């Protein structure tokens, strides 16, 4: 269910027409928005059941050239030979700063979670079937860093639209055996393949002992069994923030979720200890929609 905000291509002249096409399709600006919105998280009848946001005005030229700058910054070689080289590449280009996140990304080999026939270590999203993708490594790094403080040992995490299981496995290693991690994916075939992927990864012991689970379900409804959650990651764009996910976020917890239709923002949602909610925009992104199973498979 994942899709990344930025496709990274070779800087060769052959790639330039595709670069222009991509820039016409979507852009990514890594600077956070200064706009915040706070509201009550109460589920009472007096509280709003919808989350609405005012998108900040953007200067098209500024965003366009920011996108070019970012794409030049993240040009990747056509072939990176190993997971370790990929992590080093992300560090060298400033996409990965946290030592802990780097260790986890090096431990969880992306090559185990990318369908055969793809180049697993290219910094680009990849098709995983069923109108779904696995996000680009730099977006995985960004989301892990945004959630790092809420993925401490013993904490609980939810991965909505868990896809091939990559981030679910990373979360599990970060919270450890005393924590709990649930992945929710509404395509049964992806759930089955993600479990096999995790079984072949460093997170296999956590899956075996039950502190890491992956279930078939509608991620918009969350997964209450392991809740409330310190960290929630959503790998597809919702028109607004689903109320069940807000309800399952623990006071002091943080959620990272893309919100919007064509114009989308990666939002960081924090639930304060008093239950109030604050939201800020981290970056502009382009994700596949968070929808029903039938909606996702339409035309597939």
UniProtKB/TrEMBL annotation:
Its EC number is 2.1.1.77. GO terms for molecular function: protein-L-isoaspartate (D-aspartate) O-methyltransferase activity. It comes from the Eukaryota. Keywords: Methyltransferase, S-adenosyl-L-methionine, Transferase. GO terms for biological process: methylation; protein repair. PROSITE patterns: PCMT. Gene3D superfamilies: Vaccinia Virus protein VP39 (3.40.50.150). GO terms for cellular component: cytoplasm. CDD domains: AdoMet_MTases. It catalyses: [protein]-L-isoaspartate + S-adenosyl-L-methionine = [protein]-L-isoaspartate alpha-methyl ester + S-adenosyl-L-homocysteine. InterPro entries: PCMT, SAM-dependent_MTases_sf. Belongs to the methyltransferase superfamily. L-isoaspartyl/D-aspartyl protein methyltransferase family. This is Protein-L-isoaspartate O-methyltransferase. The lineage of its organism: Eukaryota, Viridiplantae, Streptophyta, Embryophyta, Tracheophyta.
């Amino acid at each position: 269910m994942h899709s990344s905000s930025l496709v990274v291509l070779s800087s060769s002249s052959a790639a330039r027409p595709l670069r222009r096409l991509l820039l016409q399709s979507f852009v990514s600006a890594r600077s956070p928005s200064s706009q915040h919105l706070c509201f009550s998280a109460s589920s009472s009848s007096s509280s709003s059941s919808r989350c609405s946001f005012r998108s900040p005005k953007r200067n098209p030229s500024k965003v366009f050239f920011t996108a070019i700058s970012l794409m030049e910054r993240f040009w990747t070689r056509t072939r990176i030979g190993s997971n370790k080289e990929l992590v080093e590449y992300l560090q060298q280009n400033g996409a990965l700063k946290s030592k802990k996140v780097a260790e986890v990304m090096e431990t969880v080999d992306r090559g185990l979670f990318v369908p055969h026939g793809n180049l697993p270590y290219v910094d680009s999203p990849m098709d995983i079937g069923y109108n779904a993708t696995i996000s680009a490594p730099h977006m995985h790094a960004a989301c892990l860093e945004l959630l790092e403080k809420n993925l401490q040992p013993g904490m609980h995490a939810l991965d909505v639209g868990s896809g091939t299981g990559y981030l679910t496995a990373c979360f599990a290693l970060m919270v450890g055996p005393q924590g709990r991690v649930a992945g929710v994916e509404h395509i049964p075939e992806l759930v089955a393949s993600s479990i096999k992927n995790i079984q072949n990864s460093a997170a296999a012991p956590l899956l075996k002992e039950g502190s890491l689970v992956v279930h078939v379900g509608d991620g918009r409804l969350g997964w209450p069994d392991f809740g409330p959650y310190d960290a929630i990651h959503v790998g597809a764009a919702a028109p607004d923030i689903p109320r069940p996910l807000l309800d399952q976020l623990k006071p002091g917890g943080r959620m990272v979720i893309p919100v919007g239709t064509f114009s989308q923002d990666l939002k960081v949602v924090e639930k304060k200890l008093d239950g109030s909610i604050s939201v800020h925009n981290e970056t502009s992104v382009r994700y596949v929609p968070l929808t029903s199973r039938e909606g996702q498979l339409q035309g597939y």
